[in-house]
Amino acid sequence: MKDSSPPSTPQKRPGGRTEVVRQKVIEAVIELIKSGNMHFSYNELADLSGVNKTTLYRRWPSQINLFQETLQEHNKPVEIKGKDSWAETLETGLRELARHFSKGEEIAMNLSFLSSPDVEESSMILAQWQPIQSNFIRLIKDAQEKGEVPSSLDPASLFTIIISPLVLMTLAGRKPIEEKKLDEIIKVLSVLTTRSE
């Protein structure tokens, strides 16, 4: 006699590699870093995230893997788009970067990575910023092609000069950048980078 009941749906393995698990882990990593605990154990991460330690090791065999995925997710919202003029692009870009650099977890991560003697960690941090840097450099080149930024300026060096005050102020002050100071930085950088008529 044939069973006429509908076929059962396969059960999902608890603690599997789902997006929900990934988000819990990423949020827990950011929380640990924000609290100043950069070199946490997988036990601490399992306790905070509620994800089994075996799942953590299977998905992220090393902390570098874990940091890479966390930083990719953390940096994802940083999106800088070109505007009608270089001055507008520069201001929008600086405000977006300042907002990002001013986050508590970003300050904690940058301080921890800066003080870490681990070359692999430092290289990984720089690699995670590559898409943001490449995008900003492309915007600088676009402004150079329009004649708004002097073509004699190296775009990569200009990007470094643009972000340096933001990084320095958040690291040295260990707090978000004040709006008034950001306005002054934008004004100075706009004058320094815009082609004079």
Explain what this protein looks like in three dimensions:
- With 197 residues, the chain is mainly alpha-helical.
- It has nine helices and no strands.
- Helix 1 crosses helix 2, helix 1 crosses helix 6 and helix 4 packs parallel to helix 7.
- About 5% of the residues have low confidence.
From the N-terminal CA to the C-terminal CA, the straight-line distance is 90 Å
Major pleated sheet: none
Helical stretch tally: 9
For the secondary structure, the number of strands is 0
Q: How much β-strand is present in the residues? A: under 5%
SSE order = HHHHHHHHH
CATH C-level of the largest domain: Mainly Alpha
Shape: elongated
Q: Which stretches are low in confidence, meaning pLDDT under 50 for 5 or more residues running?
A: 7-16
In CATH terms, what is the fold-level topology of the largest domain?
A: Tetracycline Repressor, domain 2
The Rg value, from CA coordinates, equals: 22 Å
Question: So, the CATH homologous superfamily of the largest domain?
Answer: Tetracycline Repressor, domain 2
The overall pLDDT average reads 86
| CATH-level-2 architecture of the largest domain | Orthogonal Bundle
- What is the total number of structural domains? 2
- Helix/sheet category: mainly alpha
